[in-house]
Amino acid sequence: MRTLVVALVCAALLAPIGEARAAEISSTPIFGVVFQFLAECVVLNGGNNPVSVKLKIVGSHGDLLEAGNCYGSLGPGEFCSIVAGWQDGLSLGDGHPVSCVATAPSVANLRGAMVMHERVNDGMGGLLLLPMRSAPLR
Amino acid sequence: MSTHAVVVRSAVLVVLVAIVLGLAGLAPAAELLSPPLPTGVGSSGACHVRNTGTTPVSLQVSIFSNNSPVFMYDTCYDAPLQPGRTCLVVVDLPDASYAACSVTAGNVSKLKATLEIRGQYPTAGFPAGLLRVLVAEDLR
């Protein structure tokens, strides 16, 4: 009986600790071949409490392309994003897939997406960024 | 029954109740929420919800943004969503913003939903004024 009590108490104590541990959600790598111009990682806090979130966009070699921390805290219902873009005459990520990773104490109420944008003519002599594909963070 | 046995049984009962209440706290809330998506320029958002269950479901669907979207129409609000049917909410989205869709119901386990961002694709050969789906994500 005492063993059972100890086991149950341990289970009750450990369950919340498991919930409080830092967690991570990430996207699959997405790729827009030569049309990929800018990658945007956006998260939404769907919970009722502020949460500290760290974001990073990484290339296919694990190279860090961009990082951010949502100004330290993301309030309930708030959005936050980081972008990585075209550089040095090469398409984003040197023409390779890119992924997004979000880290927070709890990701249960966090939703996120990695979105690849292409650049198209707007028909009036200007340029326009259009989202061309997306992948959820899970 | 000895005092010791009573104390132990009470302790077991308290711990079991705590565990049951803890598990209840982990039960999924009656809400589905999409990942956020960028709105671009001149886009609209559409949230489709399908009831895959066998009973009607009363639900509320909301497309929200960090800037105010403009409501267009909502076919989910009028009556409970019948089994096998799909309803739709559409809004005009603000430029250069983010949007997400939420679905709230008593039970969302049989609901499947998707948020679409629709926009014009201003290239030669694509008919002016027509919208196409640029990106879409499922609610969970």
Characterization of this structure:
The complex is a heterodimer of chains A (138) and B (140). Chain A has a single domain (21-136), classed as Hypothetical Protein Tm1070, Chain: A (Sandwich), CATH 2.60.290. Chain A has two helices and eight strands. Chain A has helices at residues 2-20, 92-95; strands at 23-26, 36-45, 54-59, 64-68, 79-85, 98-104, 110-121, 127-136. In chain A, a hairpin with a 4-residue loop joins strand 3 (54-59) and strand 4. The radius of gyration of chain A is 19 Å and the shape is elongated. Chain B is an alpha+beta fold and 140 residues long. Chain B is 17% helix and 40% strand. Chain B has one helix at residues 3-26, and strands spanning 31-33, 37-38, 44-51, 59-65, 70-74, 86-92, 98-105, 111-119, 132-138. Chain B has a five-stranded antiparallel sheet, with no helix packed on it. In chain B, strands 1, 2, 4 and 7 form a four-stranded antiparallel sheet that branches. The longest helix of chain B is centred in the N-terminal third of the chain and has 24 residues, at 3-26. Chain B is elongated and about 70 Å long. The termini of chain B are far apart. At the A-B interface, helix 1, strand 2, strand 7 and strand 8 of A face helix 1, strand 2, strand 7 and strand 9 of B.
Which short descriptors sum up this protein?
heterodimer, A: about 140 residues, alpha+beta, Hypothetical Protein Tm1070, Chain: A, four-stranded antiparallel beta sheet, 2 helices, about 15% helix, elongated, B: about 140 residues, five-stranded antiparallel beta sheet, 9 strands, about 40% strand
